[in-house]
Amino acid sequence: MADRDGVIWLDGEMVPWREAKTHVLTHTLHYGLGCFEGVRAYNTANGPAIFRLQDHTDRLFRSAHILNMKMPFSKEELNAAQCAAVRENNLDEAYLRPMAFMGSEGMGLRADNLKVHVMVAAWSWPSYMSPEAKEVGIKVRTSSYTRHHVNITMCKAKANGNYINSMLALNEAIASGCEEALLLDNEGYVAEGSGENIFIMRNGILHTPELTSCLEGITRQTILDFAAELNIPVKERRITRDEVYVADEAFFTGTAAEVLPIRELDGRAIGAGKRGPVTEKLQAMYFDAVKGKLPQHSDWLTHIKD
Ligand code: PMP
Asked: Where are the alpha helices (DSSP H) in 18-112?
């Protein structure tokens, strides 16, 4: 990643990829107080387009607000920076990483002279997991790590430090031969994956946990929008892990993971042990939407123009 051609937007300027560096005393590196986004651009008939750019930028600014970080750029500037990062790296499809972080102007928890810095990188990242995972589904294990509690960290912020919990859970799941972790909240109810929201389909109803301790996923909202269009009833409520065991279908949603079927949780097959029909339908709609094939949702796309 470090040694490659291309450019990264850093504090208002495009800099060569290899020169987009920061000091070892960068405050966020030490204490984790920073926030970021994961955004994707897809190739459409009209060239590359960023999916739900404004929603991601709005969430980045909400995260910064929650963390009390004053953004030194406007939303419009950040949107333009993301378009430029795709365009100037000549990417047709891209994963984008905008991040706001505290600099090395001061050290220690009490530093009061810190500046907020902002970067946007874009690179080609076709598939988050194996390409066949989208069709056959993944194996998941319930994590021994509890998801954040609302009074331990700020769950509505996509904060850098929050991801220690995700990394511990994901590494544990991978070490035990699974592909992803399912984290429960502090009362034992299903929360989310390490970087995804979760849905289950049971008796014709789509269920997803309330947003108490999980991230307000933009893909989650996209799926809720599709469910409304398809007249699929939805319940946002507490879900137990054994409800996932007996669900007809289950899937994860996230910008990186997209719509990812879950075929097994804790060694129990979910439904038929493969991608279910409703998952397949919602997944197909998702890929149509991101690729500009759903005219009713063309407003979700920001085309990269010269
Ligand atoms: N939960 C967590 C913890 C995440 O990191 C992500 C990825 N941003 C999601 C859910 C899904 O959010 P989105 O659909 O906006 O990518």
From this structure: 27-31, 53-66, 75-88
